[in-house]
Amino acid sequence: MAQILDGKELSKKVKDGVKVKVDKLKEKGINPKLAVIMVGNNSASSVYVKNKSKACENAGIDFEEFFLPEETTEDELVELIEKLNQDKLVHGILLQSPVPKHININRAFETISPSKDVDGFNAINVGNLTIGRDCFVSCTPWGVMRMLEEYNIDVTGKTAVVIGRSNIVGKPMLQCLLSKDATVTICHSKTKDLEEVVSRADIVIAAIGKPNFVTGKMIKDGAVVIDVGINRLENGKLCGDVNYEEAFPKASYITPVPGGVGPMTVAMLLENVVKAAEEKT
Ligand code: NDP
After folding, report:
1. C-alpha distances in Å from residue 267, one per residue of 10, 13, 201
2. From start to end of 109-188, where are the E strands?
3. What is the DSSP code (8-state) at residue 242?
4. Interval between CA 19 and ligand 1 midpoint (Å)
5. Is 16 among the domain residues?
6. Is the CB of 209 under 6 A from ligand 1?
């Protein structure tokens, strides 16, 4: 039976650490500040932004929201980001995805100054992560790594399988695990014999966006199972990408959904904002 990796509890610890750092910065006259941009109406994004705003408020981090209408042009968005890049009172800039289809989100991410890119999506930060330099790391994989560390789960030499190759989760997850000497395989929608690949893993990270995709029989006895997925079922309940009931008896450690990776993502965002503010001192 698995031990639960309690992201809710652990995120409180991370946030307490952030608050201490924020207080120290304030003593030096620096008020860490995050600017969040949202373009168009998206109910899920609104919830995420609200959560981030609340978390910032609790940690003493200033928070400014920019809600832009659906018809905002790419140039107008880029102009706002450039203005925030210049604003000395803003330490972190976050562009909430998705954005409307007429906007090239990659151009917007590239416009965010690498030193304020607290989501770690800018190509400079992605490149620095790849070559092992200090950088802002995408908050979700970074939160997973913190979780593994806090629970003393050593990934060195272990076989890790990441399912999903998105730029925001799967690919940086691969880099983070590799940097800690895991042997990493990444699976995606074209992977052949995915079940077989996953069933060999000591560590399984599911970031697909499909409810209950990872079944119990894919899990090796004693594997560590990290479920990044957040899926809303028809009955309104949230569930992950892993069939929790099936995986629980086989895994050594497992993250619940909700209460696993999600809270860690927000906590790591706060850490990144503090890091950005500290680097300006
Ligand atoms: P994307 O949709 O960008 O990527 C999904 C990945 O899953 C793709 O690489 C895709 O492969 C792969 N995939 C889809 N279907 C299959 C399949 N049948 N077999 C194997 N691989 C498949 O999603 P994200 O990475 O943005 O998010 C993944 C999940 O994580 C979502 O549920 C999202 O809500 C959640 N999430 C949770 C966060 C948190 O804080 N907990 C933060 C961010 C995301 P291909 O590339 O070939 O299309």
Report:
1. 9, 9, 27
2. 159-163, 183-187
3. B
4. 32
5. no
6. yes
- Each residue's pLDDT tens digit, 47-60: 999 999 999 999 99
Q: Is 262 in the pocket of ligand 1 (CB under 6 A)?
A: yes
Asked if residue 37 has its Cβ within 6 Å of ligand 1, the reply is no
Q: Which residues belong to the active site?
A: 52, 96, 119
Residue nearest to atom 19 of ligand 1 (CA): 189
Residues 111 and 143 in one domain: no
pLDDT confidence band for 1 (50 / 70 / 90) = confident
Range of the domain at 43: 29-116
Number of domains in the chain: 2
Among residues of the chain, what percentage have pLDDT more than 70?
100
Residues 251, 151 share a domain: yes
> Residue 171: enclosing H or E segment and its boundaries?
helix 170-179
Ligand 1 probe mutation, 208, 215, 238, most atoms within 8 A of CB: 208
How many angstroms is it from 229 CA to the middle of ligand 1? 7
Cβ contacts of 12 within 8 Å, gap of 6 or more: none
Query: Are residues 110 and 199 located together in one domain of the fold?
Result: no
248 and 151, same structural domain? yes
CATH number at residue 89: 3.40.50.10860
